[in-house]
């Protein structure tokens, strides 16, 4: 009985050590992102009309941006693009809504599988980036479409390599 207890104790200790290492590694990897989001949160609250933050998303383009969604004291919704060198805020109603972009995509590309729609920056313009997957005759392909935030005009489409069947 004593030998069995030692084996189980060793197994439990090893499992705990592995779990600790995984959690530590996850925190190590995520820390830079969390720090960027915390800095964006602070800037948005201090330098824009936002008084309450509802969510933060990451845009990874030529430059990385933390996209802060929030409301002001009157309940007006705002979107903030927080980059390393710039902070830009717009009322959500002054541009196209995520749902408008989603509906337009569903009309234009009904077979596409939408993966993500996030505000971003494309060639110095504030945009909605739409990332989606589309089946083609020889496989699947990922696409990025960029729509101007202010008027919903499609600016460009980037096609990634074909993933053969």
Automatic annotation (TrEMBL):
A Pfam family matched in the record: TseB
Keyword Transmembrane: yes
Keyword terms, alphabetized: Membrane, Transmembrane, Transmembrane helix
Coiled coil (residue ranges): none
SUPFAM superfamilies: Cystatin/monellin
UniProt xrefs under InterPro entries: Cystatin_sf (IPR046350), TseB-like_dom (IPR041401)
Cell wall elongation regulator TseB-like domain location: 40-81
Transmembrane segments: 7-26
Protein name: Cell wall elongation regulator TseB-like domain-containing protein
């Amino acid at each position: 009985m004593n030998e069995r207890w030692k084996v189980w104790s060793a197994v439990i200790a090893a499992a705990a050590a592995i779990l600790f290492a995984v959690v530590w590694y996850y925190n190590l990897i995520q820390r830079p992102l969390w720090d960027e989001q915390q800095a964006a949160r602070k800037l948005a609250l201090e330098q824009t009309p936002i008084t309450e933050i509802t969510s933060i998303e990451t845009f990874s383009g030529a430059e990385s941006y933390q996209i802060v969604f929030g409301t002001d004291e009157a309940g007006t919704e705002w979107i903030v693009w927080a980059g390393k060198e710039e902070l830009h805020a717009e009322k959500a109603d002054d541009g196209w809504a995520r749902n408008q972009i989603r509906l337009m995509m569903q009309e234009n590309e009904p077979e596409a599988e939408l993966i993500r729609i996030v505000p971003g920056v494309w060639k110095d313009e504030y945009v909605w980036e739409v990332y989606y997957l589309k089946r083609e005759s020889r496989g699947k392909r990922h696409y990025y479409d960029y729509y101007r935030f202010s008027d919903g005009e499609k600016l460009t489409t980037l096609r990634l390599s074909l993933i053969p069947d």
